């Protein structure tokens, strides 16, 4: 009889298990994120020394963008023009968090490239970034008026992602 037919289920199982293992080792970024989760209740000091800010719920009671950036981050510089555009399109809704950076370096960065942010918070030790779920700067979060993270962009913004962020800011929430 054809004994090789008995090996087919074993071979199929090995192929499926191999593919599953490969996917677990090399997941696409963002595959394991929840679509909506509460914004962290972390309180950040403001860069200008005027007080503190938290994003749960967001300031102003409307959706906001929170962009974590650093002056030493080349992709942060590359995405900056898109943040400037977002700041012009959505005044009062774009906030920055200077991540693990010196205030003087962050101020020079913003002076050189322009400051699109309504306010800039400080995260010198990175704890606030961890509370957000940051994997590396730059990362951008859209927080609903109810304090839910409704969009998380890991990596630098580009034209398409900027439109996605803008759409999330404008979308009605129930």
Task: Provide tags for this entry.
5 helices; alpha/beta; about 20% strand; 6-stranded mixed β-sheet; elongated; 8 strands; Glutaredoxin; two-stranded antiparallel sheet; about 170 residues; single chain
Written overview of the protein:
- The chain has 174 residues and is of the alpha/beta class.
- The chain has one domain (27-170): 3-Layer(aba) Sandwich (Glutaredoxin).
- Helix content is 39%, strand content 20%.
- The chain is built from 5 helices and 8 strands, in the order H-E-E-E-E-H-E-H-E-H-E-E-H.
- The strands form 2 sheets. Strands 1-8-7-4-5-6 form a 6-stranded mixed β-sheet.
- Strand 5, helix 3 and strand 6 (120-123) form a beta-alpha-beta unit.
- Helix 2 (74-89) packs across helix 5 (159-170).
- The radius of gyration is 21 Å and the shape is elongated.
- It starts with a helix and ends with a helix.
What is the beta-strand fraction? 15-25%
Shape: elongated
Cα distance spanning the termini: 64 Å
Radius of gyration over alpha carbons? Answer: 21 Å
Structural class: alpha/beta
Total strands: 8
Strand order of the largest sheet: 1-8-7-4-5-6
CATH architectural arrangement:
3-Layer(aba) Sandwich
* CATH T-level topology: Glutaredoxin
List the total number of helices: 5
Please trace the helix and strand order, writing H or E for each element: HEEEEHEHEHEEH
